[in-house]
């Protein structure tokens, strides 16, 4: 069955959709409206409900499931959904959030299994114990959260998907550059963004928590590593080096890392994080682009458009 | 008695001095030499020992006390000491490090007493308990360390001196802007740089520790606050806000704060820290400048020179 | 009685208001409208009058007083006023501009009296004479003008209010750092922005004059100090140093100061100006923020939001 | 006769030279020396006098004339003069400063005559009167000073030479772009740097005065224009526009102009000033470069080297 | 007869116009509309057609000629055209594109004749042959294309107009600075932007081609010069230097020149290109500005407004 | 046998060495000396020859082989060689350049064979033909040149070594991100720096050619691709895309790429080039660092030092 993003401009839509975001607004002229972000597994579109009132606000909050009729149209170079009819899904229609919310292609169980394989290549017991401890402590959220609220891996289990992809890339570069310490690199990859499970509010419709705003996932995680070491009664340089891996993974002070990488593995973690995030965005943008055309602009890639060749 | 910095260019010097820094070097032509930073309470000067060998290296390490004869001369706009004679101080000459190393004008006991007065204006018990706990935990070092290895408050008890001066400024601005929360501001002032006791190697001849380099005093302290709260069994927003105060006190990401200030008190902490550090540098530079002249260039003030008026 | 900014979103409004700004516009579809900024002492809100014609333009120019019925609503994260009825105030309703235009909490007479007290701490007669001369020359405007057209101290007597607050802060820092020359610092504070009385068009509804645009308040004031010295037949370093205080008070070339501060007092003037302006903005923003929430974004504070703690 | 810069590396030198700069120094090893900048009309070279004492300091101050024997050698990519013999010139040898100090190719009288011709193309009496008044007031210095202490037009009458060259360029662009107002442009060119006669200490061996450091030639000149208008009893927009021409001629705040150009003529003044200064530097550098070689690096041209083609 | 830009706000319009750009859009509420840029020789205005459908899209594509009735109105500080009636021009009305599309004031034949005169001042046969060859190869487009899609010389024959104006400026500066090599400078001026005939899609309604986006006119032209030299069997330094002239004419890497100018002529080419482009924009903006007013903001001049004096 | 870089500070050296660079200099005091860069396969050290004359200049030019006795010492944090004896190698000592000049670990034949394997994974005949043509055209130099004059892969066959390493990384990322086009990516990797064979002067002791300075390897190669396509009679998008791959591989305009990457493969090429260069530098620096120490500062990694953990 045709999903939301499979519809071209002008095509009629009749689908169950998940309300990812719901915001009240008022037009310049003063009429109230609601701005919804509606999604199914194919992705999301913005939509407006005009002349809304208390009833609409009650019926269509974030995280509700609705049945929507309408049409795709284009507004300022981006597709939107024009709503012609909307109603809450009924209990007996049997649609659940997991039918609609996009998630990693593989299940979180598969991804976790892939992840756990990488421990077999690690040797340092301290690093392994801290890493396993922190995975376990946050397992529920770690396997469900997105890696970001938008731009890349912004879907259920996106964080885990991103981590597993980065681990594969880590293995490739460790093979090419054998001086890299796999314990540090793999553990750094696994831990680098776990702080997001505290920084963000949840696996879907995520926003920044107060703690996320005031401390940020990097500082949160540095403290978490310290706590883990205390609980496991581990001391030694490994603790500090893991903290540094997490601390420096944004690469520069102006990107939120209070220290720049000072370990070859930390430098490589920054590169790998960057490549995997950028490839995720590029893949998404290019999949929507026709041969001989330029993609939509990708903001985190300095707002560039990318060209799709006419040959294979 | 005339101290080191009281000597003008060309004046002979005959003093007991403390070796603040001792580095081996080799001239362009290949002869070994030693580069010393010699100090007494008036400040420090660089000096060279030429054609040195193993004996000199053994006799003149950092932290040794020596008797030096020589002359002040100027090299590239900065004064240096030309050594004509040097020998280790003898035990029976009775000179100790504390006779030579510059320190805050007030004793650490006086400064601590001044500091403790500020607790009387604080109301929030959680904030007070965490702050007192951390002062106590690091008291020995907190009362002895400099605030920085150079530029400002770089003397014994310099950190405590800086903190007390900032507390006085905090009180003045809190009186002028009564919406500021004194608990947060005072505690932020007290805690903001305690991480330096781990970042730096000691109260004199300080260099950066490995942990200081890889984590930095800001992240070290954020974790310390978390540990203090755990040990005191304190939870609640206060912990996170104190962490944020410390985290953001450099003001900008590019200056090492992973988050910019998001509390009015955090913004003010950044201003006060800046003003007190800059005034310390300005006072030092202007005290060496004659009326009608420009001071030496002050690097952290964008390398500016400051003018001393000819009138009072 | 409830003032304009005391109304929450959705609440009906029925008030006399002052038209701070009145601009004609045309919608995307080509219909004429008017964009008004309406204010009373509590602050101002934007409002639109739709489908306007010549009559409306005649009735509702800037500086008119009107009676408005309507409702507060939110548009793109900022509150606006939806006008349902509007008419000019009638003469016999007895409402005057001074009833509606926000001004400093203290009267200009009180503020001037506070300001004059600071002369008692000054010693240098040349500096005092020039300063008094310029206050007197521009007294009418100096006591009425805002310090800026928006952001901080943007109300009647805002400039004087800002200056008096800065003088108090100057006194506090002069006490803490006694090397600062009070004559230079106090006079610098008093004179630094007087050029605004030429840069801006008036005490209310102020815009930039041509001279303000082409020369700016800094260069205008540097010339004014020179003229004052000529008229008072004062020569000597004091004139040049006061010019430098004004010239450098924005702190950096890119912020409009053709020279950076080269006097400790000039450096401090820059800090004090900055702190007082920022605290004014922070106070305003935090007063509208609920505990546990973030404030609106404050553009001149790098567009940051500030958090209001849940505890006192 | 061969002048100083006509000597190649390795060639012996025996010349009367003018001491442009004389600075005492001390070597790393503590021996005193003097660093001289020696010049004749062909340009200048640095030279060292080793193991100097009071006698040398007395004999070889700045502005002395000396007879030097030695050799040109190259040090770190720049030519220097190695002094083998030096003595003060004797009165009866009849060498005067004007024999040795480089100056504009044309005499100041010729240059002034060329300059005065441009008034015939001007129409606005106010602009002409202010401009003539300021030329007259500072005529002595205006015709003698360099345009800068180094880099471009740094010779006697360099300022006037620069102005006349810029006037010719102004005429060319005014002919091409006839909308430009010649009164504003010519007057702006003439006045733009006159403030340098107060900013700098004199026509030779110039350094920055205290007033030059604290106020700068731009602000000095803005005040001068205001005074001229007062003395001539001229009011009207012309005064402000001339002030703006001078104020904005550095083009950007970060280059010392508190306002960017807001008149087409001010924009053009900035371009013309830039072109004439850069061409002066390029001509000097290329004249010392062989075909097929790159010039020395030119610091104000972003430290670039320029290539001299092998063909004419 | 009154042309499009001769109409003031509020004035009725009834004109034949050329559709420079035609874009489909959808309002926030979901209604389709078309956004047209309509022009005649006086310039262009934006206009909207509301509630459009397939017929309108067929009738009003880019490059169509239409008869439009409507009115000029102002929207956000820029004039627009409100369309009240529109229909395609009829064949028998005899209006052609060249009646409506703005072009250089002189004919392309006149401009080419002016351009060819400059060859008489050139001496180097290799440079001349390459330059003539490339003019001839691209003559059709070179004489018709604009110099840019907007901002400056964005009209038919705009590129040629820009080049001829630059040549005149080149002659003026070559006369003032006779060390400049006219062969290199004139040829650089002529060739510098010919790559635009491949970078852009055509002389009117131009957009960037794929090759223009991926390679840019600078790299395209560098290759063209190499091909020309091959075809003419010319080798020698001249080829490389012409490539460098083109390569470096944007002046800085961040402006798209992979190398900064390293020939005095290349430096001058950059200045001349800049001046001529900026004067073209300034003239256009000032011609629409009343005395005593500021112009509209000019984006490529750092968004500045320029003031038009009240006197001549 | 112990090689040059195997010697610690203080250890005596007696080795045949290759003169990589030979520069004449003069000390501050005017004595001539020579500055040599001496190397064997382990790397290079700087050394000085004091009080040199014509004979020394004749005996010790760049590319000579010498026998040197001396000692390693440290100068400003970098090791140098103090020469105690030096003489030219004798013919009958049988030492050749290839015994001394560092080169890739594998032979150029092995490396070329590895490279050629990657063609088996490519499918597009046009891309393959252009790539093979250009390898063949420049094969001699391509297999011998370094990838840079310093910093990374600055040894014989360094360019080829770098390319092969990048190809392996390309394969790994292509496997992980299968949307990447291997033809474009592999060919881009192979061609991206071939222009260096024209930009640099030779495989050893390389400096920039005039063409290298004025055009740069990027623009040189873009033209080379165009010529190859002409010679092979290939047209079509592939040519332009290969040009874009080369053109954009520095990633940003300010780093010398006139266009930023606009193909996913071009983006990846930039990442891979960066990673392989940085890992080469990191490996070299870390190999000289003891556990528990920081490496020397690495300039192209923003002058950072990297830490070597104390555990394996």
TrEMBL record, chains A, B, C, D, E, F:
Which first-to-last residue range defines the signal peptide? none
Tell me the keywords, alphabetical order: Hydrolase
Which intervals hold domain HD? 162-278
User: PROSITE patterns recorded for this chain?
Assistant: HD
Instruction: Fetch the NCBIfam families from UniProt.
Output: PRK13480.1
Q: What is the official name of this protein in its record?
A: 3'-5' exoribonuclease YhaM
Organism, by scientific name, is Sporosarcina jeotgali
Q: Tell me the classification of the organism that encodes this protein.
A: Bacteria, Bacillati, Bacillota, Bacilli, Bacillales
* Name of the gene encoding the protein in the UniProt record: yhaM
